[in-house]
Design brief:
heterodimer; A: two-stranded antiparallel ribbon; binds zinc ion
Chain lengths: 394, 139
């Protein structure tokens, strides 16, 4: 396998605030995020020749329209765009879009790729519809649907087994939420800006699907974000600090959670490959942006990426090491727990945050001397696992 | 008799064999005659060797709870009246896993690795759903 280490870079990012915005159309949000990314990159829009929208969950019509060149028309790319197609793999969509964009650029098929996500899970569909929809995705109609599966139940199933296997406590799970909200409190684009929460408050909330509590679930929100990928060579001529793509790898394993293998065995090769391609190890990671959906997944990913040993992540969060001022900042935008669940948007938001940390544009959340950031993604019911390593220098 | 309001399984060429078995009190799974792979959910093609010589075997119906959750709220609407109920992934002795409900027990006592055995719940004349209850230890 030929390495693409250091040959491509993310050069610009954009993001609109996440939250409840009934008056904000989903395409307006997508356009705003794209506009910000283009300006941030200092790139001429005419140099963008591929647009990759990421799957929309809240509205089937919006989803169908996004792949039909809507963004190409809105941004006036009608004379220069060569390709417009969608990437859809839920929470790993941003990882797959980044991989696809980097591959197109590296192959000489695209000069610059705009990846954009926008969705309205907060106001675009009511809670009943959301519960019904999330109960029917990533589950077998033949053998599972009769039993009352839901994405919340999934969180319960995974947390129960993770706690059983590792001895992680409910308090440690709550510490992840506290950490996410500490970061979110510093993030003006988060629905929880200036709204931290304590471990005690999390533990006071009612159990919804044991052992998951109301405040260990994330909030459905509206949001949009965008990023631009181009060659490392071109990136140097643009304004700002590029985030070079140093390594990436992934593994896909299953469709329904019932069939989930031992993920530490099945997914670890992706982590090893990404570190190897980048030429770094976990000890060189300055910031980690780990895809969450719920706090147990944050802990699992902290261990999968070898930032902590097996079963040690809960203690790591409880002791504050992942929080602002800690020795290894994790999920510095607040992740989905802190920024809200925007469908597939949690992934691009983390990638955008990783790029901001490398470019020194993370505001109050900026970590000092960031050279390497890892980003992860996972779609469906943990159907796959992706890891990317971004760096300040090649 | 009240009408059954929860989702019924989609009946396909393979799931029909499975649910015909359930109606007769048999829990069936597949076995690949070519490579020996134990297969569940049932398939047309062996995912290990791509063989098509798949046979149906009857499970002993015993396993242990791999993991579980008790749904107290926010379950799919058809299940709202049943809350709280237990959703679990059961690891069968034959080496495959299935999703089901844990019934006939005190929820407080459920743990991962707890031994369970199958019971069939005849929810309609056509469909009996395999569910699981804790194995009662003989004294
Ligand atoms: Zn076989």
């Amino acid at each position: 396998m030929g390495s693409i280490r250091g040959k491509t870079a993310v050069v610009g990012v954009g993001e609109v605030p996440t939250g409840m915005y009934p008056e904000r159309s989903f395409i307006d949000a997508a356009v705003s995020a794209s506009e910000m990314a283009i300006k941030d990159a200092g790139i001429r829009k005419e140099d963008i020749d591929t647009v990759i929208p990421i799957v929309v969950v809240s509205n089937a019509l919006d989803n169908a329209n996004m792949i039909c060149s809507w963004m190409v028309e809105e941004l006036g790319l009608g004379r220069t765009a060569k390709s417009n197609f969608q990437v859809a793999s839920g929470g790993s969509s941003s990882a797959n879009a980044l991989k696809t964009a980097a591959a197109l650029v590296n192959a000489g098929l695209s000069k610059a790729v705009l990846v954009v996500h926008s969705d309205r899970l907060g106001t675009g569909l009511d809670l009943g519809m959301a519960i019904t929809m999330f109960a029917k995705v990533s589950t077998s109609q033949e053998y599972e649907m009769p039993y009352g599966f839901s994405q919340l139940a999934l969180a319960g199933l995974l947390q129960q087994r993770y706690m059983h296997d590792t001895g992680t406590t409910e308090r440690q799970i709550a510490a992840v939420v506290e950490t996410n909200r500490k970061w979110a409190a510093l993030n003006p684009n988060s629905i929880f800006y200036k709204k931290p929460i304590t471990i005690e408050k999390v533990l006071e909330s009612p159990v919804i699907s044991s052992p998951v509590r109301a405040r260990t679930m994330n909030k459905l929100c509206d949001g949009a974000s965008a990023f631009i990928v181009t060659s490392a060579e071109r990136a140097r001529d643009l304004t700002g600090q590029p985030a070079y793509i140093l390594g990436l790898s992934s593994r896909c394993t299953h469709f329904t959670v019932t069939q989930q293998p031992d993920i530490f065995k099945a997914w670890s090769p992706a982590v090893d490959e990404a570190y190897e391609m980048a030429g770094i190890g976990p000890g060189n990671v300055d910031v980690a942006e780990l895809y969450d959906a719920f706090p147990t997944f944050t802990l699992i990913s902290t261990e999968l990426t070898q930032l902590c040993g097996r079963g040690e992540a809960g203690k790591f969060f409880e002791e504050g090491h992942a929080a602002p001022g800690g020795k290894l900042p994790i999920q510095t935008n607040g992740a989905m727990m802190g920024q809200g669940h925007t469908g597939a948007g949690g992934g691009p938001a983390l990638l955008v945050e990783a790029v901001r940390q490398i470019a020194g544009k993370a505001g109050e959340r900026q970590v000092d001397n960031v050279r390497h950031v890892i980003v992860t993604g996972s779609g469906g019911v943990g159907m796959d696992f992706h890891m990317e390593v971004l760096g300040k220098e090649v | 008799m009240s009408e059954y309001k929860k989702p019924l399984p989609l009946i396909t060429r393979t799931s029909k064999v499975f649910y015909d078995g359930c109606r007769e009190g048999k829990l069936l799974y597949q076995h690949c005659r070519d490579c020996g792979e134990v297969i569940f959910f049932p398939k047309e093609l062996c995912p290990n060797c791509m063989g098509r010589d798949l046979e149906w075997l009857e499970s002993r119906g015993k396993g242990k709870i791999h993991t579980f959750t008790i749904a107290y709220a926010a379950a799919p609407p058809e299940f709202a009246e049943d809350q709280p109920y237990v959703l679990a992934i059961v690891e069968m002795d034959e080496g495959y896993r299935m999703m089901s409900n844990i019934v006939d027990c005190d929820f407080e006592t459920i743990t991962c690795e707890m031994p369970v055995e199958v019971v069939f719940d005849p929810v309609t004349p056509e469909v009996s759903l395999p569910k699981f209850k804790p194995v009662v230890r003989k004294k």
